[in-house]
Every structure is written in structure tokens, then in C-alpha cells.
Amino acid sequence: MTTPAFGGEVSEFYQRFRRGYPPEAADELAAAFTLTRDDVVLDLGCGTGQLTRVLAARAGAVLGMDPEPAMLEQARRATPLPNVTWLLGADTDVGALLPVFGNGRLAAVTVAQALHWMDHERLFSAVRPLLRPGGGIAVVTNGEPLWLQDTAWSAALRDVLSAYLGTPLHRTCGTAEASQERYAAALVAAGYAVDLRVVDYATTLTVEEMVGGVFSAMSPEQLPAPDARPAFTDRVRTAVAPHGPLREAVRVRILTGTR
Ligand SMILES: C[S@@+](CC[C@H](N)C(=O)[O-])C[C@H]1O[C@@H](n2cnc3c(N)ncnc32)[C@H](O)[C@@H]1O
User: Fold this and answer.
1) What are the pocket residues of ligand 1 if the criterion is a CB atom closer than 6 Å to any ligand atom?
2) Tens digits of residue pLDDT in 61-95
3) Which domains does the chain possess?
């Protein structure tokens, strides 16, 4: 698997500007896996802890696991939570948790906006022995990338970014229907009972939040130099100005595989 670059400053932008999850998303996960205060949940590919934090209110303990030290460092520095532990590790390290969580002692594994970096078929099989009956794995996506949405401001942002990066933009980050269908089929093949839950919410962005969100999705090499960022922000501001306010309709998709 390719290791993405979420290091350095990108991790700071991620922590400050990347969308969090509404509490309703954690409610849906709790309902899907009947989570209680006796349960432990693993949030794999936790990044700076966007989903980990809302899960912490619904489980006894949550492990946030990620292979990028800078992301974990940001997660640790943000609101400390007594029932969250941060672990350095990738999808390929899940088997190492077996001696601790064998015999079905884990209630759920969540993978939010991160499965496209992993070997999902291998992961779905590796996770099964860790899960208690009624527990499961959830593949979560958190709306469309800012520059790929079906709005006039998103199209204007897309034009600015395509010109800046010198390439047309077509990334889907695993949110596309085809990826979801592939993941659902792989869950069924691995023996899980599959369901889909959605949570819709609306938000309004400032230009600074939009630019911060864009920077959180760049690799460190793609980030504009610090002294070029005000001009970059102005370019975005000018492009989206005719299309304000910058309203965003976000759909959180929670694909669950129950054991
Ligand atoms: C887009 S972020 C998602 C963060 C957070 N879960 C969210 O929903 O906002 C993707 C995360 O996946 C992590 N990641 C990349 N490859 C991984 C792998 N092989 N195993 C586990 N996590 C991985 C990255 O370090 C990054 O923090």
C-alpha cells in the first residue's frame, strides 16, 4: 500500500480544519453494534481523532490507531479524553492485537475516510476474530471533498486548485458509489451481515475554513509556501465570492458489517 503523506504541517491543518463527525454518527454506530460502557472500539486510520472523539462518548474505551506519528501527535494534543488511547500502527498491524483482543473482546472497528489506503479484503478477515458477537466493522465516509461537490462554489474552487496543481481534479477518496459497492461485497464475502446508515447535516464555511480544509488534503510538497498562502487564499476568495454563502450539505455514510 502507498503510504500517504499526512506529516508535518498537513497534520496541523487536518486537526484544525478537517470536518469532524456529528454525535448522530456515533449514535448510529452505537445502535449498529449495541455499544455499551463495557465495550472497547478500535478506530483504525484515526488521523487526528475526528471520529475517535465522538466514539469516546459511546464506548468504555477507544483505541485510535494510525501509522502517521504527526497525526497522532496532533490527536494527543487536542482535547485529552480519559478513555482514549493513541496507538502507532497500520492496517497490517491489526493481527498484533489478537493476543490482547482475541476471543472476541473488541466491540467494533471503525475505518473513517481511510480504507482506500488499506488492503480492505485482508483487513476484513483479520478483524473478524477480534470481534464479539453482534460487534462489527464500519466503513465511514464524511461527505464529498470540498472541490468535488455539486455546487457553484465547489466548481470555482476546483478551477483554482486545478490551475494551482496543473492537473484536472478527479479524486474520490473512497466516497464514490463504486467503492462503497466494492467494500459491501467484500464484507459479505468475509462473512459479515451488511447494512448502510446515513447521517445528513448542513454547515456553512468561511473562506479560511475552506482553504484550511484544502491544505489538510494536500501532501506537504503540494502546500503553498507560507508566504504564498495569503495570495492563494485571496485567489480562492475571489473565485468563490459570486457563489456565497458557502453552504455545504454533508452526508456521512456508515457501511456496517456485523459479525
Ligand atoms: C483522510 S485521514 C482520515 C482521518 C480520520 N479517520 C477522519 O475520518 O477524518 C486518513 C488517515 O489514514 C491513515 N492511514 C494511511 N494508511 C494507513 C494504513 N495502511 N493503515 C491505517 N491507517 C492508515 C493516515 O495516516 C491518515 O491519518
Assistant:
1) 1, 4, 6, 18, 44-47, 50-51, 66-68, 71, 90-91, 112-114, 117-118, 142
2) 999 999 999 999 999 999 889 999 999 999 999 99
3) 8-145+174-212+245-258 (3.40.50.150)
